[in-house]
Amino acid sequence: MSEVCVKICGLGTEATLDAALEAGADLVGFVHFPRSPRHVTLEQGRDLARRARGRAERVVLLVDPDDALLAAAIDALDPDLIQLHGKESPQRLAEIRARTGRPVMKAVGIATAGDLAVLPDYASVADRLLLDAKPPPGADLPGGNGRSFDWDILRDAVLPAGTMLSGGLDAGNVGLALARTGLSAVDVSSGVELRPGEKDPVRIAAFVAAARRRA
Ligand SMILES: O=C(O)c1ccccc1NCC(=O)[C@H](O)[C@H](O)COP(=O)(O)O
User: At what angle do helices 67-77 and 90-100 cross, to 10 degrees?
Assistant: First the structure.
């Protein structure tokens, strides 16, 4: 069985980025969304992404970006992957992919089996899908809420290769999540933090080790 692919999202400091890289994360994510406790400015993102170049895939996370923001984020971070975590339609995804020439990963919120219906449309234009828990009503953030969805919803789903599972994962539950869903790629934010926005190198290392233990 090949190694589980791990993304650590919402990194904001050199120390925690280094912890993710040293733990062997495959992808490192930088959130550019001012309402988030994990928000990094484009200047901060530029420095962090430079530091990670060649060591992991650098992901810039944007929420419903307009063309100007996309251009600025790409200029600053030179990302390997653009993660779209808003209400972007499949058409907008295709446009962003064509306009930027960069691979895109679409985050889709899941709460019930009905939420899987949109996946084929997104799969036809995205380079990767990320399945996240749908935020609770009234939530301030579209992701990074530390909530899981019922993994059994995915039991009979046919998902594209590389689909990432996220939402409420941590070192204690990631092994079970992988086993229950059959997926081989995971993404985490809150589960490797001490408090919102404060990543913990110890939890990052524990998460990567726990995810890979399955392999
Ligand atoms: O993390 C954020 O603050 C955030 C803000 C706005 C949109 C998305 C955001 N995070 C998305 C992620 O990639 C998270 O890793 C994913 O939602 C899982 O989060 P968690 O349940 O906290 O592990």
Answer: 50
